[in-house]
Write a structure and sequence with these properties.
There is one protein chain. The chain has one helix at residues 51-59; strands at residues 6-13, 16-27, 33-40, 65-69, 73-79, 86-89. The protein has 110 residues and is mostly beta strands. It has one domain. The longest helix is centred in the middle third of the chain and has 9 residues, at 51-59. It is globular, with a radius of gyration of 16 Å. This is DUF1820 domain-containing protein. InterPro entries: DUF1820.
């Protein structure tokens, strides 16, 4: 029986670091974007509610695929087990988002 692949995707969005899990990651049809599909969330039943996990579930509720800009992705890992999706603040990090777009079309200068 083949084992289903799980990817952990860590990316930056509006001063926050998102960590999500998905079954499919590919270069998207949109230039400069990575397509992340089949998002999975930890569905363990517990009494304790994690506000970070609830925020990420509501953020991606009903999403089939999301397209992430390449320059916002910190890392993508293929993992053996799914962890807990979370959102954390970017402050105090030595990782900075690129301030400019990766691709800028050249203008016609005649």
């Amino acid at each position: 029986m083949s084992k289903k692949r799980i990817f952990k995707i860590v990316f930056m969005n509006q001063g926050q670091v998102f960590e999500i899990y998905a079954r499919s990651v590919a270069h998207g049809a949109l230039f400069g974007f990575v397509e992340v599909s089949e998002l999975t969330f930890d569905e363990r039943s517990s009494v304790v509610v994690d506000p970070g996990q609830e925020k990420i579930k509501s953020e991606f509720a009903g999403v089939k695929s999301t397209y992430l800009p390449m320059h916002s992705i910190i890392r993508i890992d293929e993992v053996d087990k799914q962890g807990t999706s979370k959102v954390s603040k970017l402050e105090g990090s030595n990782v900075a988002q690129f301030p400019l777009p990766v691709y800028t079309p050249s203008g016609d200068k005649r």
